[in-house]
Structure formats: structure tokens, C-alpha cells
Amino acid sequence: MHVTRVAPVAGVAIAHEVTGHIRLEQRDPVQWDGTDATEPPLVIRHEIGDARPAGMQPVLTVPPWCTFHIDRAGEPASLFHGMFGEVDRLLTTVIPGSLYRVRYATAPRDPVITLQPELTAYSFALAARGTGLIAHACAFITASGEGVLCPGVSGTGKTTLARLLGAVDPPLQVLTDDRAIVTLTSEGVQLWGSPWPGAAGIGGTASAPLTTVIFIRQALSLGRRAVSPREAFRRIVNTLSMPLWEPARCGHALEIVDAIVSRARSIELAYPPTEDAARWLASEVESGASAGVE
Amino acid sequence: MSAAGWSEAIPVKWARATKVIARRVAGETVLVPLDSHASDPEFKGARLYVLNETGEFLWSLLDSPRSVTELARNLTREFVTAEDRAIADVETFLVALRDIGAVREMTRGNGE
Predict the structure, then answer these.
(1) Residues of B in contact with A59 (CB under 8 A)
(2) pTM for this structure?
């Protein structure tokens, strides 16, 4: 067995334990030094074996990529369908929150891409621990140290915004162009970057208190309006990794969502995709921080 | 489902389903029925339902089994509404919540 370690993500170190004739893709998609390891590690064990979800109940299909299942113990699993010549892989829960297993039906011919099972196992572990959620979002930190989350499904302009914000002078600290981590502790709601970027390839290791949620909308002219917590909830919830398989975890996730939309201010910013507009967008967040958003 | 005014001979009781999450989010009651997902081939993401004021009131009553009559009677006490309208509203609410797996009809046969 050999072990590949991923630097901590939001304080959680990730280790891939590999057995058999399985090779993991050597990937370094972003400069990722990792955050300080403050939480118990997450282990993902890769092995060859039966990859059929026997006795499991399918609960959600995400074509063409995967089908989520619930096992007999009520824990989540995911069957990743063989794409691009890959073999089917089944991610299952061994110890909720800390150990997950990926089974390959046959020995993969090529090095396997770990992104999918790693991201999924991480979201399962966050839910089991009740510590946070993964947000499909661009995220950045303002000059005054405030965490800003810009959630959106694919096609809403997260990558474009991340690129523009990185070019602002002085540059903002862009945490991610695609996947951010939001955690809730007794100290508040915290925003983190991740090593799972989108097309812009941006991953940042810093974190900051989440103070602002921006719903971005590309438009011909600049515009801004306050978004109520109720509207923010409706707009943000489908961009979050909600654990829909288990009542207690889903309930806790809703409490995290409530904390996000109740404690952070939410605004909608319409902007044309230009550097000037990105500079304006960043300044709007800063001015909202000092004056409060109407 | 039937409700013959205030005088049901054998009142059917309704209760919250066991696999439904209810939480207050941004000042509203949000329901997530978990059992409905498995049987829904169109399910692509979180199915969350936000209750209006009347729905929140009825949901709060359903913490224990209630008949349509009981629910409607409480509704007329809390809100300005006629009996017939209250019964119709309660029936509509219960059918909608039954269809998403958030409430269940409790018959005498299931021992509840």
C-alpha cells in the first residue's frame, strides 16, 4: 500500500491509501500549500473489488457522472460511471467522517483521476462531522480581510469574475473560482478556499470570516441591490452540498445555511465583464462593509 | 380524503412523516421530505419547500396526529376564515404535503 497526501483543506488533511495495481494521477492543478491541520484527517482508500452498489438504494442521479446511493446503514455512497475509458468506481462510507473507500471493478489501465471521489468523500465527511458545506462559488478576501462568497451554478460567471478580481490593482486574494468551503463554529461562519478549481485554475489557502454573499449577474451596466435573507436562501441553497440522505445531517446543514444568510449581508451585483467593473464590485463590498448595505 | 364539515363519523388523522426535515431558515419554516427523492426520476437537486404563514400554523399543529376537522377548527380560531373555506384549505394543504412525502394519513389499521 502506498499513501498520497493532500495538504489540509479547511483544516482537514486528506490521505489517499492505494492498494493493488492502482495508480493515482499526479495532479497539481493549483498552488496548494494547504491550511493548518486543525481537524481529524480524512482517509480515502482505493482498492480493486466489487463496485456494484448491492443492497443500496439509489437516491440521486447526476448524469452522466454518477449516481448517489444510501447503504443499509443510511450512509451515503456514490457510483461513478466509467467515463473516458475509466472503469466504474464505487465510493462508500467505512467510518462516517473519517474513512471512505473507492472500489474499482477492474484494475484501471491508466492513472485514475482523484478529483471526483476526493471532492465527494470530502463533502460526505463534512456532512458527517456537521462542520460545513462545499459551495459551488467563486470566493475572495477583501483588502480589509472580509470573506466574500459569490455562489452560482455553472455558467453564471464565477470563472470570469475570479480572473477579473485577480487582475484588480491592488490584487484581491481570490480563494477559488469554483469550490469554496464554508464552516460554522462557535466563533462564526468561516470561508475557505479549496484545491478544486474551475476553468481559471485558482485555489487559495487563506480563510476569512464570511461577511458578504454576492449574487453576481452579468449585465451591460453596473447595478446593485440588497438581497433579503429569504431570497438569499432560495438562491444559494442549490449551490451547496446539502446532505439529503440523512435527516439529522440535512437538518444541521440547513442550520448552517441559516447562519450564512442570516449573518452575512447579501447583495446582487450586476456588472459587465471588465476590469473596471471588477474594481467597482470589490469597492462596493468594501463600502458595504463600512456603511452597511441598505 | 374526506371531511364532512365538523362532524366526521370516523375521523382520519394526519401526522408528520418520519423522514421529513423542518427547520427555521431566514425566519421561515423549510421542509425537506427525504423519502420523496428515491421515487422521483426527475429529482436533480434539493427539493425544499417553504411554508407560508397558514402552512406554518398547520405544520405546528401536526406535531401530533390531527383530523381535518381539528385542523380546520384551529384555523378558524387563528385566522379570519369561514368553516367551509378552512376545511378546503386544510384538505389542499394535506394533499400537497402528502404528495411530497411530508405528512402521512394514519388509518386505524396501522395501529396509530
Answers:
(1) 37-38, 43
(2) 0.88
